[in-house]
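request received
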Amino acid sequence: MQVSIEIATWTQNNHGLFDYESKDLKITKIIVENSMYLILNKDVVEQSKTQNEKCIGKINFENGQIYYYSNPKFIDSYVKLDPKYKQQLQVGELFKFGRIEYFISELNIGDKVQIAEDHYNLDRHIKSDKNKVTRQCKFCLMEDLEQVEDPANPYLTNLCGCQGHMSYVHYQCLKLWINFSNRITRKQTQNTVQYNWNQALECEICKVPLPARVYIENQKQPLQLIQVDKMDGSYIILEQITRQDNLSKSLIFIHAFGTNLISIGRGHISEVRCQDISVSRNHAHISFNNDNWWIQDQKSKFGTLRIIPDKLLIDDEVKEIQIGRVLLKIKLI
Ligand SMILES: [Zn+2]
Ligand SMILES: [Zn+2]
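response:
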């Protein structure tokens, strides 16, 4: 067993977009017969037994199968979804529609809620520092004189850049301030409820951005700062993020009651609209079927890309993998 890799290199910086129809490409081909690192040398991808700082990924032969390994410390790798097939959605997956990034932050099939780990440093992780000083909530000005804390309404600290007694806030007071003061627009459609940040969600005093979730030390479940009205039954939460700034920008709650085909795109008929030129009018569809959530690309111009956090099995289908300005078409031969 070996793999053939057709390599297309876009000669200019492409700002994270790969124009699949472009003619301005350098195309080469390699055959990989053993485990090898893939090294980007100027515009050429070469295979090598040793890794260096320009390693974009690796082909690995293990237990009778062949995998592609990404090297996210250097550069992210994405697999392009084949528009011919639906792909099952998993919690924690990150997709790119054009330049726009979405993350499956919560997924529920049946009655088991799965919450994604904080892979992309979007959440705030804080320590609980009881008993150190008298804490006063900067919203309601109440002090915790008895040092007893309501577990449903803990004091949060170090969420933003505010120091000293200005750093304390009740969870419920902050949540109220975020959700009921015109900072978030709630829009309901047939299959979704969409929560868009009207303005940057940030501390009014120090202007540090606020997260959608907070984890308190030693607590497994995060505290949600966005009030999402969840309905019974299966759902997913699609979260638009910018990883560059470690920020969430909107939450889209998708339930399984409606027409069961949710279109994502730039066009006005799309239920989830992305106003970005890199998103196609009808870019991808999400659906719920056979107790699972699915996604299918709709032959979009820049593709629906799923991040490869670690490895991807190379099977009988050709895999198109995008890494910066490089596109690999990998197949078994
Ligand atoms: Zn308070
Ligand atoms: Zn602040």
